[in-house]
Design goal:
Layout (H helix, E strand, L loop, with lengths): L8 E5 L4 H12 L3 E6 L2 H11 L6 E5 L5 H15 L4 E4 L14 H27 L4 E6 L12 H24 L3 E8 L18 H12 L6 H13 L4 E4 L1 H12 L4 H13 L1
Amino acid sequence: MKFSLRNGVAVITGAAGGIGRALAFVMAERGCRLALADRDPEGLAAVAGRLRSYQIGISEHLLDVADPQAVAALPQAVLERHGRVTVLVNNAGMALGGLFEDIPEADFARVFEVNFWSVVRMMRAFLPALRREPAAQIVNISSLFGLVSPAGQSAYCATKFAVRAVSEAVRHELEQEKGPVRLSVVHPGGVRTNILDNAQIPQKATEEEIARERERYRKLLATPPEKVAEQIVRGVERREKRILVGAYARQGDLVQRLLPASYWTIMRVWMKAKTN
């Protein structure tokens, strides 16, 4: 049965830009009310302002997903404004590149707080409200790098593999309880967002190294977030358990399945060709 977004209420983290912003517009077109959360007040206000033309209920929530108390308080604020929650989209995230030995433990911990622990805390916070609905959906945004682990991405990959792992386990638990909540984990690849510009910078990296790596990865980010959002929403409406978005995600998934111990040998050559 198709999951309908019309007249529902979606909570979207990281809603001020990138995939989160694009998802907000696609869901608004479906007639879904929106609780938009982000730590960027100006970006949040700009997105909400543009969305008001859809004449749906919209609320803005200034939120640092790495703050456990702020996350715990969010459900009450959303319920006071909208009365219900039918969709939770855990989209907020940050990037952190660099060689494993060059990344301080504090930076590892920070990226886990944003990319992984926020997903855990948001699910715990909103599951009671989601369970009260006839049908509800959790949407956790992992990554292509939740399927494969390139060199220089140990911290980011660790968080996105962790999002994948907890999502699959929670999905199985929700299926066992035979309740109204289902879960989709999303693996986008090559999406044109500002994640590189907002990435945590390794302390030992030089300006030249940072610029070179950003330019190299920027060449891989070709898919517009609007196109990605439409694919994600269609997958959610079909209640797909696993949503691979873009050719890079599908190719990465295939090569790691065929060559689980040596896929990086092939991907390294492929990435070099794409970024030269």
